[in-house]
Design a protein that fits this description.
92 residues, alpha+beta, 3-stranded antiparallel β-sheet, 2 helices, 3 strands
């Protein structure tokens, strides 16, 4: 039978493959621009999909993305709390 623990100190080491992108930094609510070849190396639409799928669909955290420069393959994005912010096209 399993034992119930009151507390446990989890190992801080990551298991498996290391993360490819600095998600904690990117998800801080700031408006960010990333550029192909510098910040990511996949197709632009694949990166936009990765940005969108980083949070569960039922989460209050959402992301807005835009391809800012198709020639340079630049994406602008922002993670935000949908419960706290009504989107009006700008960041306050």
């Amino acid at each position: 039978m399993s034992e119930i623990l009151a507390d446990y100190t989890w190992d801080k080491r990551r298991r498996g493959r290391p993360t490819k992108y600095p998600w904690d930094e990117w998800m801080d609510g700031q408006i960010r621009r990333i550029v192909w070849g510098k910040d990511f190396n996949c197709k632009v639409e694949s990166m936009r999909a990765a940005l969108r799928t980083r949070v569960p669909s039922d989460s209050p955290i959402k992301v807005r993305t835009s391809v800012a420069d198709k020639e340079r393959m630049t994406i602008v994005f922002q993670y935000y709390d949908n419960k706290e912010e009504e989107y009006n096209g700008t960041r306050n």
